[in-house]
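Minutes, methods subgroup
Present: GH (chair), OT, SY

1. OT presented the first of two proteins processed in the latest run. Sequence and structure tokens recorded below as shown on screen.
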Amino acid sequence: MGDLTHALISLASAEKGRARSRASLRDATTTVAEAILDRLRTGDTVTVSEAGSPALKAVYRAGRIRWQVSQWANWDEGNWQWSDPEVTLLRNDAALIDVRERNIDSRSNILRVVGSRIILDDGHAFAGQDDEDDEGPEGHLATDAERLAFAAEAPAVLAAFTALLDSEDRAFADAAQTVAKLTPR
């Protein structure tokens, strides 16, 4: 019986350690994703090789998402609406930052997050819940596996976004200089 008790105590200890490490991973990846997102414009996109599979590519972008919200505690299938869009850092179709806590709509109504659906909002005309065909592609919150991949890919993601911003900086500066030469004095 003592061996079984020891094994159960070991299992409980391992479970607590995993839960702590999982929470640390979520916090760390959210912090890094927020720091990256703070420097981007909506739509900025880079592609990097996936960690462990260089032939596969992961697309990172500053993209808008919407999710299901309701003013009512007892919501049902017909008693919800899509949130206002919020920008997050996406890895493929996975939101690395859970922006759903920002649940106040444009009319200053406090809204509860309901359901688990997330829609990627690419800026097209958004009809909302009444037009199922015009909602946009499905997304989801990043899984632990996707967060582990982001942790491994983060240096490449930072380098790719830095290169993108440097390239745009040069292009804008060159264009401004060209136009400035055309300005009458």
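2. SY then presented the second protein from the same run.
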Amino acid sequence: MSNKFKCSCGFIVPPGGIVITDEGCSEWVCPDCKKVNPFQNDIVIPMRVDEWNKYSEIVSGHIENYTIPQYGDAPDDMISTWSVDDCIKAIKRYCDRSSVSQRGELESLRDLVKIGHYACIALNKKATLCKKEGLNTEVMLNAIKEGTC
């Protein structure tokens, strides 16, 4: 993670520019716009990472509390038989459906959660296919993660 963080107002916090005033503090305030930003283990979390972490918790809860009780878990659930293309088709279907609020905002939000779940499954299926082709998916995914490709 970078030692430099940026507030949504555009202010760049230089390395070492954050002062933790309270032990166990979970937030920092931008010295420029006074916006509150999250900390994690005394390290500033970029806002997009914080959003992702919250989204990931919602997706995990949906999988544990709805999807698995309803459809089962891998390798015995129906989606285990799907291809990468099947997952992508489902993502497209839910993308289209989430913008139509005829079914209500709760279902629209749930569709956005399902998109994340299907994207995760598609990524794992694609990585497995690449590995079968002799590609080093661990190195490839790490390069994506580290931003080095």
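Chair's summary of item 2: The mean pLDDT is 83.
Next meeting: continue with the remaining queue.
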